[in-house]
Amino acid sequence: MYKKLARQYNTGVLTGKGGTWGGSILRPEATGFGALYFTQHLLQKAGKDIKGKKVAVSGFGNVAWGACIKATELGAKVVAISGPDGVCHIPDGITKEMIDYMLVMRASNRNKVQDMADKFPGKAQFTAGKKAWSIPVDIALPCAFQNELSLEDAKELKANGCWCCCEVSNMGCQPDAIHFFQHNGVLFAPGKAVNAGGVATSGLEMTQNAEHISWSGEEVDQKLHFIMKSIHEQCVKYGTQPDGTIDYVKGANIAGFMKVATAMLEQGTI
Question: Contact, 239 vs 248, CB < 8 A?
Fold first, then answer.
C-alpha cells in the first residue's frame, strides 16, 4: 500500500502538483532536495564530500522525506529520524522502502516515529523521549519546526562528533545554538538559504502555469540544483571573512538585502 502511496505522491496524484491541475513535478520534494544541494556545495567548499557521511534528520513530513531521498541519492547515510515521541536510530542507513513508508506515517496523522521501528524491526531502533540530535552523526538537518534545536542539543551534537548543521526548517535552531556552532568549529548555514528550494520551485510552478508548459522531473531538478548552487555562491561572496572562513548567516543576510536593494535601485524606487 505504501509503495502505491509513494508513487502517487511522486507523480502528483495526491497533491495536484505537476499533474492535471498544473503546478510543478517535484514540488513536494523541492525543499528537501534543495537543502541537500546546498549542503553538498557547502561541504565541497570546505573540502569535504557528502558521500559516506552520517546524517540525522528531524521529522518525517514533506521536508524530511525529500531530504532523506536526496541525501541517500548523493551517497550519505541517514541514520536517524525523529518525531514528537522520540527517535529512530537506523544504524545501516535508511532504505528506499523506509523512505516510502515515511509517507504512510505522515498520512496516518499518528505523528509517531515509533511506527518506523514497528514496521522494520531489527533495522530501526526506537528510543522514546530522545531527539535525532542524540545519535552520533557528521551532519545534522533540522527539518521539522522553528526553534527545534537548542543549545543543549548543539552541545550534544558537537560532543558526539557532529561538524555540520544545515538548517532546513524555518529558523530551526535557537539563536544560542547557532552561536555555539559558529564559535566551536561546526559548519552552519541558515534556513533562509538552505530551504529556499521550496519557494524557488513555487516560482518555477508559476512560470509553467503562466506559459502553459510542462517540465519533466529531470528539468525541474536541474533548475532547482542551479538555483541552490547560485544561492550558495552568493552566500560565499558576501560571507567570506578575512581569514578565509565563511559566515553563512552573514552571507545569506547580505545577499538577501543586496537582491532587494539592487532591484529597487534599478526600478527607480530609491
Answer: yes
pLDDT in tens, 34-92: 999 999 999 999 999 999 999 999 999 999 999 999 999 999 999 999 999 999 999 99
Distances (CA, A) of 207 to 189, 202, 213, 227: 28, 9, 8, 15
198 CB neighbour count, 10 Å cutoff: 21
Q: State the cell numbers at 186.
A: 561546526
CA dihedral 79, 67, 258, 263 (to 10 degrees): 180
The runs of H, that is alpha helices, within the chain are 2-11, 27-45, 62-73, 96-108, 114-119, 151-159, 175-182, 191-194, 196-211, 217-239, 248-266
89: three-class secondary structure by DSSP? strand
pLDDT in tens, 114-136: 999 999 999 999 999 999 999 99
27 is written with which cell numbers? Answer: 514540488
**Which three cell numbers mark 229?**
548552487
d(CA 9, CA 4): 9
Using alpha carbons, select from 103, 63, 74, 39 the residue that is nearest to residue 198.
Answer: 63
Q: Which residue is listed with cell 508513487?
A: 7
Q: What residues contact residue 8 under an 8 Å CB cut-off, 6+ apart?
A: 14
